[in-house]
Amino acid sequence: MRKVGFIVNPIAGMGGAVGLKGTDGEEILEKAIKLGAERVSLRRAEEFLRALGAVSQAIEFWTCPESMGEEAFLRAGVRCTVIPGRRGKTGAEDTKQAARYMLEQNLDIIVFCGGDGTARDILDSVDMKIPVLGVPSGVKMQSGVFAVTPRAAAELLIKYLWDEVPLKEAEVADVDEEAFREGRLSARLYGYLLTPYEPEYLQGMKTPTPVRDDVEENKEALARWVVDNMQDGVIYILGPGSTVKTIMETLGLEGTLLGVDLVANKKLIGRDVGEREILEAIKGRKACVIVSPIGRQGFIFGRGNQQISGRVLRAVGKENVLVISTREKLEGLEVLRIDTGDPEVDRLFRGGLKVLVDYGVFRMMVVK
Asked: Most buried residue, 151, 180, 209, 352, by most Cβ within 10 Å?
């Protein structure tokens, strides 16, 4: 029997769809709950466990009490051993204690369900003494320790346990969440974790768009084309990132860098909105989503823009989604990725998708 530790951060990702960009801190968590935030990590943990299929019977799982793991196993119908730990309300220290306990049990690997903050807590506890794999459940997830989807995490775990893939040092990012909420991306390399390595299944650490004259000119050309082709009466849903923000600057509007904005008739009608506000704004209206892929990772949905949820994409339709990218960013990507948490929506987008790379110039990319 292979022995696997499994830790769930029960509040990870709850701030995404409601536009809070994370759930660090009691005040932010309470606000997320009041806004109707859903328990993302429980759903993602269950999806991961179910994706293991019959192989789960050949794995001895060790997990935490209640919402930190046990609940997901009960929902998925997978056997597990529950380790000592706090029941009820938990925090970062409980994650660290669980990781240290699992390290002492000589398990084969620790799998965790959370975001960058959870990755940092586990790194603080185990360093590189045991392999670690992340099931993506947070908001930003800029670290390279995460699989691209919960299902990919399950497949990668199986490959590792049966000696089909090697280990590599994967970067763990430290993102200042308070600055992130204020529209400033402050990130640094926090450290490394040993992670099963298979490029198809594992995401890389996010890389920023370089500040160079030719790149800036490319972004301006993209923005001009978008503005020149905007239609009256259409609600434009503009995702985060400097490439899309250039559209707002071209319009002379004060948008957000790391949030989602709404524009109609070239006027700002919603700034830093959540899923609920988007759905209310587009009800009975034609809408268009404009996003740019994340550098090195290639995600167009599911990382840092959970406000543009599966429900929003269903309402808008694939034909009304415009992906824009500088040529340089796209040259570093073999494929684009999507991970909304809605399998049907993800399947809808998989295949070929046109990407605007310059004024009126498109390039076809594969979406996985």
From this structure: 180
- Sign of the CA dihedral with 279 first, then 281, 284, and 286 last: negative
User: Is 201 inside any structural domain?
Assistant: no
Q: Are residues 33 and 66 in the same domain?
A: yes
Taking CA atoms, 360 is separated from 5, 28, 214, 223, in Å, by 50, 42, 17, 11
Q: Note whether 9 and 110 are same-domain residues.
A: yes
- The per-residue pLDDT for 140 is 73
How is 287-356 classified by DSSP, letter by letter? EEEEE-PPTTT-EEESSS-TTS-HHHHHHH-GGGEEEE--HHHHHT-S-BEE--S-HHHHHHH-EEEEEE
Amino acid making up residue 69: G
Same domain, 270 and 183: no
Looking at the structure, do residues 235 and 189 belong to the same domain, yes or no?
A: no
pLDDT band at 111 (very low <50, low <70, confident <90, very high): very high
| Count: domains in the chain | 2
Rounded to the nearest integer, the mean pLDDT of the chain is 91
User: What CATH number is attached to the domain comprising 350?
Assistant: 3.40.50
Q: How far apart are CA 217 and CA 290, in angstroms?
A: 19
What the block records as the tokens of 57 is 């019977």
110 contacts 102 by C-beta, under 8 angstroms: yes
* Same domain membership, residue 182 and residue 79: yes
CA angle centred on 194, ends 190 and 195, rounded to 5°: 110
Residue 285 is part of which domain span? 213-367
If asked whether residues 183 and 238 sit together in one domain, one would say: no
3-state secondary structure of 6: strand
Q: Check if the beta carbon of residue 154 is closer than 8 Å to that of residue 100.
A: no
Of 322, 297, 77, which Cα lies nearest the Cα of 207?
Answer: 297
DSSP string, 65-114: SGGGBHHHHHHHT---EEPS---SS--HHHHHHHHHHHHHTT-SEEEEEE
